[in-house]
Specification:
- This protein is of the alpha/beta class.
- Helix content is 25%, strand content 34%.
- It has 3 helices and 10 strands.
């Protein structure tokens, strides 16, 4: 469910050693399934844990997650990052912004994850984002560019040389990638 690197576990253990006994970690999601979704990590005392929380045991502490947030935190990872002289925990949750209004197929979940991990980090560096709209019965992947990609003069190159190429190479079941974005250059367009 959630992976915590060894260094992050040691760091969390050190932080918890400075707290009262029976203090653990709770992870929760604000605005799950939306563009404004955020993950938070906080201390939680055992007396404040309820039957709405699921427990994940680690060597020296437990992590509690509300059951309603489990889908959004699937395949999440916590790593310890060093910035200059400071350390900070980085929580990566590939499904945090995904809506669960409809039941996703395995192919959809894999493509959503692939887009979040392998395509959107590059697009986000330009203020853009790629959204999977649907996969039709012909196994055509329908996508939409948002933010800085909408109206960008390089979007055709990005579509053909990065998005389409990567999706078709990694998912042989896909027959075609179709962009339904109505591209209009605006103040957000990257180029």
């Amino acid at each position: 469910m959630i992976k915590i690197s060894k260094n992050a576990q040691k760091y969390i253990s050190r932080l918890l050693s400075k707290k009262k006994i029976n203090t653990h970690i709770k992870i929760f999601v604000e605005n799950p399934g939306t563009e404004k979704a955020l993950c938070n990590i906080e201390y939680v005392k055992l007396k404040n844990v309820t039957n709405l929380d699921k427990k994940f045991k680690f060597k020296k502490f437990n992590v509690y997650i509300q059951k309603k947030d489990l889908f959004y935190l699937k395949d999440s990872q916590i790593k310890l990052i060093q910035n200059n002289l400071n350390f900070e925990l980085m929580l990566r949750s590939p499904y945090i912004k995904h809506s669960i209004k409809k039941k996703l197929t395995n192919l959809e979940q894999k493509i959503l994850y692939f887009i979040d991990v392998n395509i959107n980090p590059f697009l986000l560096s330009h203020g853009g984002k790629l959204v999977l709209k649907k996969i039709n019965k012909k196994n055509e992947v329908i996508i939409e560019f948002q933010g800085g990609c909408n109206g960008c003069s390089m979007v055709n190159s990005t579509l053909k040389n990065m998005v389409e190429k990567r999706l078709l190479n990694n998912f042989p079941k896909i027959s075609k990638v179709i962009d339904i974005t109505i591209h209009k250059h605006n103040s957000l367009s990257y180029y």
